[in-house]
Structures are given as C-alpha cells and as structure tokens.
Specification:
Layout: H1 3-22, H2 29-39, H3 46-57, H4 62-83, E1 93-94, E2 97-98, H5 100-103, H6 106-126, H7 134-148, H8 153-162, H9 170-180, H10 182-194, H11 201-228, H12 231-234, H13 240-243, H14 249-253
Antiparallel strand pairs: 1-2
Helix pairs in contact: 2-6, 3-4, 3-10, 4-6, 4-10, 7-10, 8-9, 10-11
Length: 256
C-alpha cells in the first residue's frame, strides 16, 4: 500500500473514532476527555491499516471494516495508556505529547484505559454490519478477547515486567513479543478475514504467518530505535528500555 493509501485509511479511522466518541453522553466530561485525548492523539494506526488493507484484498466492504478497525485501535490505545503508568513503564511522553496520566492524572488514566477496553468490544459488536454474518461477528469478539488477555497482550506484558533486570533467551524474548506486540497485529488480520466473504483456512494461515513476521520486524525496529532514535522524532522517550534494563533484541544480540 502507498503512503497515500495509508493516509486515507488514517483519516477514515479518525472520522469513525470521532463519530463514535461523539455519540457518548457527557455524563463524566473528564473521563470522556481523557479517552478522546489518547484515542485521537494520532500514531501510525498500523493495526487498523492491516484490517482495512487485508480486508479489502479479501473482498470485505469498507464500511464493514470500520467496526473491527476502530475496535482494534481502541483496544491498542487502552494498552498504551496502562503501559505508560508509573506502575508499568512509567513514561511521560506518547506520540509526541504528554501521556494520559500526565495530561490528566493516574486515576483518570486508569479509568480511560478501562473505558476504552470496553469501548473496543462495543465498537466491534454493535457495528452495523451489512455483509458479515452474526456468527462471524461473534468470532471477532472471541478473537479480540483471546488476543488481548491472558493468552495474548496482557500475558506478554506480564512476562516483560517479570523479566526486567533479568536475562532472557532469544526464544523466550520472541515468545514474549509474539504475545505483547504480535497478538493484536495477528488479531487485526483475523478481523480482516472474518469480515470478508472468504472461507479458506489456507488464506487465514497465510495471513497469520504474515502478521507474525510483521510483528517480529516491528519489535526489532522498535528496539533499535529505542537506542538510536531521537525523542523528538519517535514521539516517546528514547532510551527508556535501556534505562529500565529491559530484555530487547539489541541487548541480547547487539546492533550488528
């Protein structure tokens, strides 16, 4: 996909997210502001891009893909808010701006993350699908729960925290990142498949292998940028992994 395509998907996603947030009654303005602050802060939107690009390739309609694309981004944003908290990675900068707990406060950030997690399932299950059977919508909900929880993203984060200041094998590191980073990337291509009319396990297997390769490449690049990148360019604090003595690919294998 070209940069133009990526930009068009990013713009579409922003509109969908804004529209869905605007539907929420302002029963608690501060919580609503904290949710919107983090969700609309920008970013690469790589996971929704995979939903859109892979889904269209498989014959899904663009409007049907809006539900899973917005859901995966809401879930990802919740994870970033909680990862940045002092009890986790203790970061002050995200996407070039103050992290949610710095812009608001820790309690608001925790609640915003919790609310965005629920919002993700709401976006996914309540979307007005035109061509996706209810059975496949249910399958998408199941996939999101699986890849976001104990056997996915949360499990990977727990392993990461447990191995801070501890050595780790390359195999264990790859497994950790397959959960922490790769799980939602894999979930994105599974969404694309389930939102499409395709019913071919070989196609799904190919997409999953593709997503896992992307997840690994993304993590290796992220680890390198933490060492060689610039905070202004990255939009987050460079060197934070080194400072926290986290297990990374450069730490185990070196940059060369």
């Amino acid at each position: 996909m070209t940069l133009v395509s990526l930009t068009s998907y990013q713009q579409r996603l922003e509109q969908v997210l804004q529209q869905q947030l605007d539907k929420k009654p302002l029963t608690d303005p501060r919580l609503h502001q904290a949710m919107a602050y983090s969700l609309l802060l920008g970013g690469k939107r790589m996971r929704p891009f995979l939903v859109y690009s892979c889904g269209l390739m498989l014959g899904a309609s663009l409007t049907d893909l809006d539900g899973p694309a917005s859901a995966i981004e809401a879930l990802h944003t919740y994870s970033l808010i909680h990862d940045d908290l002092p009890a986790m990675d203790n970061d002050d900068l995200r996407r070039g701006k103050a992290t949610c707990h710095k812009a608001f406060d820790e309690a608001s950030a925790i609640l915003a993350g919790d609310a965005l997690q629920s919002f993700a399932f709401e976006l996914l299950s309540s979307h007005d699908y035109q061509q996706v059977p209810a059975q496949r919508v249910l399958a998408m909900v199941q996939q999101l729960a699986l890849h976001a929880g104990y056997n996915g993203m949360c499990g990977g984060q727990a392993i990461d925290l447990a191995h801070t200041n501890h050595k780790m094998s390359v195999e264990a590191l790859e497994q950790m990142h397959q959960l922490k980073t790769g799980a939602l990337i894999e979930c994105s291509v599974r969404f694309a498949y389930l939102a499409s009319p395709v019913d071919n396990v070989a196609h799904l297997d190919a997409l999953v292998r593709y997503s896992r390769a992307i997840g690994l490449a993304f993590q290796v690049q992220d680890d390198i940028l933490d060492i060689e990148g610039d905070t202004q360019v990255l939009g987050k604090t460079a060197g934070s992994d080194q400072k926290a003595n986290k297990a990374t690919y450069p730490a185990l294998l070196g940059l060369d």
